[in-house]
Amino acid sequence: MVAIILDGKRTAQEIQKELSLKVKEEGIIPGVAVIRVGEDPSSLIYIRNKKKRAEEVGIYFEEHTLKENTSQDELIELIKKLNSNSRIDGIVLQLPLPKHLDEKRMLEKISPEKDVDGFHPLNMGRLLKGNPLFIPATPRGIMELLSRYLISLKGKRVVVVGRSNIVGKPLALLFLKEDATVAICHSKTKDLDLITKEADILVVAIGKPEFIREGMVKENSVVIDVGINRVGNRIMGDVDFKRIKEKVSHITPVPGGVGPMTIIMLLKNVIEAAESRKINAKLKQEK
C-alpha cells in the first residue's frame, strides 16, 4: 500500500483561484501589513512567498522592515499606526522576534479585528469558546486540507505531537469541534510511541527531523507533518516520509504539504477581515 499524498500545494492553488474570484466579485481591495524585525533568512523567504500570493489574489501588501535592535516602543508605535490605518485589514508580526522584544506583549498590541494570525489573547479565547474572529493559519490550513480530501473526523482518535500556541493547542480545539477525540503530546510525554500508534490521525509539529518513525504510526492512519527542518541542503519534515508512506492511508509531504496551506489560509483571513470592514462601514452609514 502506498499512501495518498495530501497535496497542499495543489489544494492551495485551487483555493487561491477561489479567493481571487471573491475579491473581484465583491469589489474589495483587502490590505495586509507584515512587520519583520531583523534579517532572519527563513523569515525573508516566507514573507516573499506571502507577498507573491497576496498580490496574485488581489491583496494590497505592505512590508515593514525594522532593524534588529529596534526598541519595544518603536515597534509598538508602528503597530498603533497600522491599527489606525484604514488601508490595512490585517497585521502580521513575523515571528520569532529578537530576544529583547516581548513577543506576547507585542502580539497583544495588534487590534483583534486585524489579528489575522489569530494569536491575540482575545481571539485565542474566542477560539476556545468556538466563535473566533480568526483561526491561526496553520491549524486552519490543516483542517481545510483534511476536508478537501474528504477525510472524516467525527469519532476519530487524533494525536497532536506539539503543544505550541501557534499549532498544537488551537488545532486540538478545532478537532474537538469536529467531534474527534484528541490527545496532545509533548517533550514530557511518557511512552510516546504507544500513544502515537493509537492515532487514526497523527499531527506532528515539534521541529525534529524525521522524529516519527515507521514503528510509531498506526497502519492505514492519516499523518500530517507540520515540521520544516533544514538539514544541509535538504528540507525535511518531522516524519520519516519515505518509510511511513508505505504504511499509512494519507500523508502530507515536506515541502508541499502544510506550508502552502498556511500562507493561503492567512490570505483568506485577510479577505474575511476586509469583508467585515465593508459590512461595518455599511452599518455605520445606515445609522
Description:
This protein is an alpha/beta fold and about 290 residues long. It has helices spanning about 10-25, 40-55, 70-85, 105-110, 120-130, 135-150, 170-175, 190-195, 240-245, 260-285; strands at about 5, 30-35, 60-65, 90-95, 155-160, 180-185, 200-205, 220-225, 230, 235, 250. The strands form 3 sheets. A 6-stranded parallel β-sheet has the order 1-11-8-7-5-6. The chain has a 3-stranded parallel β-sheet with strand order 3-2-4, sandwiched between helices. Strands 9-10 form a two-stranded antiparallel sheet. Helix 7 links the parallel strand 5 (about 155-160) and strand 6.
Entry summary:
The protein has 287 residues and is α/β, with parallel strands linked by helices. Helices cover 43% and strands 16% of the residues.
List keywords for this structure.
single chain; 287 residues; alpha/beta; Rossmann fold; 2 domains; six-stranded parallel β-sheet; three-stranded parallel β-sheet; 10 helices; globular
SSE blueprint:
Elements: E1 4-5, H1 8-26, E2 31-37, H2 41-57, E3 60-66, H3 72-83, E4 90-93, H4 103-109, H5 121-129, H6 137-148, E5 157-161, H7 168-177, E6 181-185, H8 192-196, E7 201-204, E8 222-225, E9 229-231, E10 234-236, H9 241-244, E11 250-251, H10 258-286
Parallel strand pairs: 1-11, 2-3, 2-4, 5-6, 5-7, 7-8, 8-11
Antiparallel strand pairs: 9-10
Helix pairs in contact: 1-10, 6-7, 6-10
